[in-house]
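FYI - complex with heme C, inputs then prediction.
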Amino acid sequence: MYFVLLVVLLSALLGGCSREAGDAMTTINLEDRAQGKVKSIIIRGGCFGCHDVNEHRFGPAWSAVNERYKDDPEAAQKLFESVKYGSGGKWTAVSASAVMPPNESKVNDTEIAAVVEYILSL
Ligand code: HEC
């Protein structure tokens, strides 16, 4: 039952965010790429409404995020705070003045840490 609700919510989200029909298919492929437990966290967090793993969308590609932070020893902490409390002004070259709203109402601290670990493993 919960899964059905999730699918309905995801469909509504995709419908709302899609600029063209191809977007929905892209997102399904992205879900396949995000394996294991982070997959359900990412779906519930609605991250793919704005992000792609390899392409810039509304937000930066997560592979580009990994590229920028991979040598930063504080990367996990910085990204954790960005995802939890929101972020703006760090990715103006690809996201212009777009900001990421806080995600703390959708995903908890453990879940955010798991997704950040996933992003830094790309
Ligand atoms: C409403 C759109 C939106 C949603 C939903 C969204 N993001 Fe973002 N995200 C953005 C934008 C825009 C940026 C670039 C912000 C900036 O320039 O600082 C960003 C940046 C990021 C960054 C880089 C932050 C940094 O400090 O460099 C990470 C990591 C990230 N998002 C992960 C996530 C995760 C995980 C989720 C789901 C829980 C998520 N995003 C949901 C739009 C979104």
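The pocket of heme C is lined by residues 45-47, 49-51, 58-60, 65, 78-79, 82-83, 87-91, 95, 98-101, 103, 107, 115, 119 (CB under 6 Å). The radius of gyration is 14 Å.
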